[in-house]
Amino acid sequence: MLARLRVKNLALVENITIDFKPGLNIITGETGAGKSILIGALNLLLGERADKSIIRTGEDACGAEALFELADSSAVDALLDEFEIDPCEDGQLVVRRIVKASGSGQNLINDSAVTLAVMRRLGSLLVDMHGPHQHQSLLSRDAQLDLLDSFGHLWGARQGFADQYRELQKLQKRRDDLEMDEETVAEQIERLSFSVKEIEDADVKEGEDEEVRSEHEQAGNAHRILELAGGVARVLTEDENSVFNQLASLHAALDELARLYPVAETWRDEIEVITSQIQSLSSDVSSHMDTASVNPARLSWLDQRLATFQRLKRRYGATLEEVLQTLDESREKLDDLQTRGERIKELDAEIVVKRRQLIKTGEVLRSKREAAAVELAGAITAELQALGFERGEFSVEISEKEPSLSGIDEVDFGFAPNVGEKMRPLRNIASSGEISRVMLASKAVLARHDKIPILVFDEIDANLGGEMGHPVGAKLAEVAREHQVICITHLPQVAVYGQNHYSVAKYVREERTFSAIEQVAGDDRVVEVARMLGDGDSKVAQRHAREMLEDSDDEDN
Prior knowledge:
The protein is of the alpha/beta class. Helix content is about 55%, strand content about 20%.
């Protein structure tokens, strides 16, 4: 969830911090108070391009910072790892954006500088924005297909298709690689033959470079190793005042002491054990000195071997594992080219069979999608009717396309708000009020399948009458059981369903206008809802507001 949002010097905002909570977070305030500024700040953190005019008058920079607390950060951590960014610690992710009036700004994820493209990719995993400021994954055909497959529990079948598709693509590439003139074939055979021979002659093994490097380092330090080991051996046993000789003197003294004081026998026995250990250690050090001696011929061979590894890696791969993989691939290509005519025929036949199998798998997947599409369309239609589109209809259309990793289908979500109107693709809906409610209905159905944790609805009540506020608010509360929801609203009928309520207001100080936000609860919340009803100071409006809040609590419970 979005745990904290800080905004500084952005339009009317000087410096505010908002601590959001799980569930439904409602933001209200008079028109122009600055509610949209908060959405603008969040959009900056999602990678939207910035207009420098958003910087507060008189300041040279503005910024936003978000703290996300993720129950499951695996998808985010995978993206961070791709760009060598520190992973989330205890599920916490910090995203910062600074926009400067002059010069370049800063984009930071967990204190690592990133591009806007990376911020957008991260944002697509975290936030779905609905309303005038659109960050809407649901309008993408690819996302629609993903959601249909999630709803129908079809990811296993889809993965099976993807595996077959990759096999076919690999065969097709091998086939395409053989389509060349004879001169080019001869050049390729010569090049591949050279590569295969060079790697085979080197006779490398995976991990051998690390072993050789370790031995080379030891051989290069042999003189110092011998010098240090010799000093240790002398101190232990070889010098006149060695540890061994001193222990021998100590043993003689304890032997005499034991005759006079029997308790000393234990001390003498311990000295005997230590003396034996010193002798064993000295012997071990001396034996290793023999193996650590410098062998010029061996050192020269190690030098040559490292040079061979370096040459192979420069030409065929960053690691010996990649070099050996190149060897396997080169042998396969060489065999294909040397028997080109026969291989083309064999691959053509194999491609025909594999494509036929792929299409069959795709058709089975399509039949499952068609069944899921009917169920999904019906479920979303029912939700839309509860949200004011009494005769509205939602559709999930499946059409055929060329095979890809996702199958042989293309999905298009459609919507007809009224009887007699033509079904239109969801992405072509112009009214923000319509599209927000369609999004809300979709999220209500798909809440258990959608992995994006945060949903933001900006003025979802646009063009709605007060009577529709209650079902919209109830639906938001329902979706908020599966996601954190942040909703800006002008309707008190929606606002009363929030578990957390924030009020935005503007004020003037020293001839400057400022926006401020505070969480309201208890009597303060009653006054805010009464203001939305028309008069925050009216006892009648406050009584009505209190009744609305109590009724929404009863529904939620």
